């Protein structure tokens, strides 16, 4: 194998092995989700897109996967093309009108104004994004103007299981269910990427919520943070401290994720906390680009829960 061909070696470090099984049925009484719409967008007509993820032999005859440096740009274009089709089908009229007005203004003033990005969170409660890497999730989050809470399932999937390719979408969905956040009537947007180059999306509607779903996260979901408040110094205009949620902190922080996980069971009193979870710790935002890992510690006897910043 030619070790100088880095583009042929990257896949050995990116992917992990996993799988998912989904049973589709016409029985509404047994189904938990209803499939509303599927959009498949392929950019394979362009040679650079077709070959950006390509199985081929290297100079020494070893078979491998070649990843182009243009992959992220091509993926972004595929996502834009997909959402151009999907958006009008799902977005509320207010978002469509805002986008139309922005487009007209941009055209009249020769692209001197920023194009309005529709708020997809007004159409969907949950998002399952292809966990192909931190850069992929960050890109989709920016493109759809999503909050940290919306992309939490994808970040947790990447942190816990790595890049499992297309099956990562179902790990995302299982995470949301395991956290007890899925409710009847909620709509879910799945976004997946693949060679070709393709961007596919599926829209689901929850028609039957189930508590305590035993899935891939059953043995570890309790280790992941919930959206509860704690005291933080956010440098507000008035100064002082206020109670904020985990997701609000991550939104305010530039070092937005090396990701939320939990330490082993620790006596929270050793961390200097008091009065339970809220107000137990004071956390000041670190300097820009500092990597942090937010961890939750627990009193072995229950009752005390604290968030602690670990600098890594």
Please give a structural write-up.
InterPro entries: 3-ktacl-CoA_syn, ACP_syn_III_C, FAE1_typ3_polyketide_synth, Thiolase-like. Keywords: Acyltransferase, Transferase. Belongs to the thiolase-like superfamily. Chalcone/stilbene synthases family. It holds the Pfam family FAE1_CUT1_RppA. It is an enzyme of class 2 (transferase). This protein is of the alpha/beta class. The strands form four sheets. The protein has a four-stranded mixed beta sheet. It has a three-stranded mixed beta sheet with strand order 8-7-10. A three-stranded mixed beta sheet has the order 9-11-12, with no helix packed on it. The protein is built from eight helices and twelve strands. The protein is 29% helix and 22% strand. It folds into two domains: 29-221, Peroxisomal Thiolase, Chain A, domain 1; 225-311, no CATH class. β5 (187-194) and β6 (198-206) form a beta hairpin. α3 runs parallel beside α5 and α6 (148-161) crosses α7 (168-178).
List the helices and strands and how they pair.
Elements: H1 6-14, E1 33-42, H2 47-50, E2 53-57, E3 63-67, H3 71-90, H4 93-108, E4 126-129, H5 134-144, H6 148-161, H7 168-178, E5 187-194, E6 198-206, E7 229-233, E8 242-245, H8 246-252, E9 261-262, E10 283-284, E11 292-298, E12 305-311
Parallel strand pairs: 4-5, 7-10, 9-11
Antiparallel strand pairs: 1-6, 2-3, 5-6, 7-8, 11-12
Helix pairs in contact: 3-5, 6-7
Keywords: Acyltransferase, Transferase
Domain Beta-ketoacyl-[acyl-carrier-protein] synthase III C-terminal: 124-205
InterPro entries: 3-ktacl-CoA_syn, ACP_syn_III_C, FAE1_typ3_polyketide_synth, Thiolase-like
């Amino acid at each position: 194998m030619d070790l100088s061909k880095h583009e042929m070696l990257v896949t050995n470090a990116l992917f992990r092995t996993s799988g998912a099984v989904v049973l589709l049925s016409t029985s509404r009484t047994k189904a938990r989700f209803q499939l509303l719409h599927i959009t498949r967008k392929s950019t394979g007509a362009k040679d650079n897109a077709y070959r950006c993820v390509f199985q081929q032999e290297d100079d020494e005859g070893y078979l491998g996967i070649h990843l182009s440096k243009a992959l992220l740009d091509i993926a972004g274009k595929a996502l834009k093309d997909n959402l151009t089709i999907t958006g009008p089908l799902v977005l509320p009229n207010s978002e469509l009108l805002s986008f139309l007005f922005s487009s007209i203004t941009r055209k009249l003033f020769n692209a001197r104004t920023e194009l309005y990005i529709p708020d997809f969170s007004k159409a969907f409660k949950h998002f399952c994004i292809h966990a192909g890497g931190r850069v992929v999730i960050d890109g989709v989050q920016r493109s759809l103007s999503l909050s940290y809470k919306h992309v939490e399932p994808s970040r947790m999937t990447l942190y816990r299981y790595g890049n499992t390719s297309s099956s990562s979408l179902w790990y995302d969905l299982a995470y949301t269910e395991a956290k007890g956040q899925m409710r009847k009537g909620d709509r879910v947007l799945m976004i997946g990427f693949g060679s070709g180059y393709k961007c596919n999306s599926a829209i689901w509607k929850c028609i039957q919520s189930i508590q305590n779903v035993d899935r891939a996260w059953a043995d570890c979901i309790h280790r992941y943070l919930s959206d509860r408040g704690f005291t933080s110094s956010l440098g507000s205009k008035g100064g002082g401290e206020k109670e904020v949620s985990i997701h609000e902190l991550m939104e305010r922080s530039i070092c937005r994720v090396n990701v939320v996980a939990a330490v082993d069971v620790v006596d929270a009193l050793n961390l200097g906390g008091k009065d339970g979870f809220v107000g137990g710790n004071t956390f000041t935002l670190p300097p820009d680009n500092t990597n942090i890992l937010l961890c939750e510690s627990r009193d072995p006897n229950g009752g005390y829960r604290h968030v602690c910043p670990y600098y890594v």
